[in-house]
Amino acid sequence: MANPAQFISQVRAEAAKIVWPTRREVVTTTIMVFIMAALFSVFFFLVDLLIRGGLSVVLQAVG
Q: Which GO terms describe its biological process (predicted)?
């Protein structure tokens, strides 16, 4: 089992390797996520309308 002091030392060494994104990268990525979410929501809304319309036509033809 590892020594607790050695473990803390290793954790600090690994934490020192972390590279945080810049503010500009965070803002750009966030904007891109919102744009993609909006595009996907519009796409799935249109697909839903298409499926609902097709299903209603089939149900009217059957019933």
A: intracellular protein transmembrane transport; protein secretion; protein targeting; protein transport by the Sec complex
Please indicate, yes or no, if residue 15 is contained in any of the structural domains: no
Whole-angstrom Cα distance, residue 29 to residue 33? Answer: 6
What's the predicted TM-score (pTM) here? 0.67
Rounded Cα distance, 31 and 25, in Å: 10
**Residue-number span of the structural domain to which 33 is assigned:** 20-62
Distances (CA, A) of 6 to 9, 12, 16, 18, 49: 5, 10, 15, 19, 60
Is 1 among the domain residues? no
pLDDT digits (tens, 9 = 90+) for 12-36: 999 999 999 999 999 999 999 999 9
